[in-house]
Amino acid sequence: MADVHFELVTPEKKILSEDAYMVVVPGTEGDFGVLAGHAPFMSTVRDGEILVYSSMTQVVQRVRVQGGFAEVNDKGLTVLAEHAEVLSGAGADASSHGRPARADH
């Protein structure tokens, strides 16, 4: 199965830009998972954790987000978060709260 392209952006900078098997986002109407080929839609994002999967069972990134919007379109998934902090995976020592985040993925 093809991967979905995922971008996480805050008002300060791009936090992540990478391909993933699946991304699970904390939507205000409930968590939703996005795979390649997902139907287009938009959702508001509640405070919680985004999970980035490299396979059906392997979480490779955990990112805490506070508020924002998510959009799924033919290019992939984009989350525009008010605040984001990478908890695990590449760039886990970075956040949008003053420490530089890795955006070179």
- Low-confidence blocks of residues: 93-105
Question: Could you spell the SSE succession in H and E letters?
Answer: EEEEEEEE
So what's the overall shape? globular
Relative strand content: over 45%
Largest sheet, strands/sense/barrel: 8 strands, mixed
Gap from first CA to last CA: 21 Å
Helix content: under 10%
Tell me the radius of gyration: 12 Å
Mean pLDDT: 87
Total E-strand runs: 8
**Number of helical segments with 4 or more residues:** 0
Please, could you describe this protein's structure?
With 105 residues, the protein is mostly beta strands. Helix content is 0%, strand content 60%. It has no helices and 8 strands. Strands 1, 2, 3, 4, 5, 6, 7 and 8 form an 8-stranded mixed β-sheet that branches. A hairpin with a 4-residue loop joins strand 1 and strand 2. The C terminus is likely disordered.
